[in-house]
Amino acid sequence: MSLMITAIPAFDDNYIWCLSRPGHDRVWVVDPGDAQPVLAFLQEHRLQLEGILITHHHSDHTGGIGQLKAQFEQLAVWGPDNPQIPGITLALPDNEQRVLPGLDVTVRVLAVPGHTLDHLAYVCDGNLLCGDTLFSAGCGRMFEGTPEQFTRSLARLAELPAQTKVYSAHEYTLSNLRFAGAVDAGNPVIAAYQQECEALRAQGQPTLPSSMARELSCNPFLRLNDHHIRQALTQHWDQEITDTVRAFALLRRWKDNF
Ligand SMILES: [Zn+2]
Predict the structure, then answer these.
(1) Cα–ligand 1 centroid distance for 78 (angstroms)
(2) Distance 188 CA to ligand 1 centre (A)
(3) How many domains does the chain have?
(4) CB within 8 A of 105, min separation 6: which ones?
(5) Which one of 66, 91, 93, 255 is most buried, by most CB atoms within 10 A?
């Protein structure tokens, strides 16, 4: 039976992803920044919380851990080896592979520093749970890492199979596509995807998951060597750009002020 991944919306634009198996009542959630929507979801669907995966230390991803632990004894809380995150029961190193108890699915850990230094991404059953590292048509802000680290982390994710489904932690797709359209104006994928996302949002539906194939075709942060994007960067910053890391740094800075 395949893995099912459902969005639990939280705050203004966060998604807490719930991992489950059809017909089974034991589930895991990823990045519960708020316990309330998780508890309501579990109650509505009569589910039992087995564990939590954490991608990084920001409070909109970790704020619900304490309340969920109080509610569920023996709750597994897996995540980065970072004392800033309260309640972690298992710190996961890069490349670790573990079976999620209750779901019987293997999760592979990828260290992806850049947005924060502790950031982890999880690959499980052809799905990528990437927190605030990769968004659809964009990437997270660089709060703690370096352009070198962030570029390497994104390249690592880009190497995943094209059919990998991409579950980011925020609904930022439409605003990211506005920026993507500005730096990659001639890319026909962007306008078509924008229409699709507008229709989904009009119905209150998430634009996620995306896929790695889609991201490779429209996400400027995964297309740093594209001729048109390099040209747009050169023009915007009025300087010659000779390497990928520099292209990332300037693209990120442009987006921060877009
Ligand atoms: Zn964050």
Answers:
(1) 17
(2) 30
(3) 1
(4) 3, 19, 99, 124, 125
(5) 255
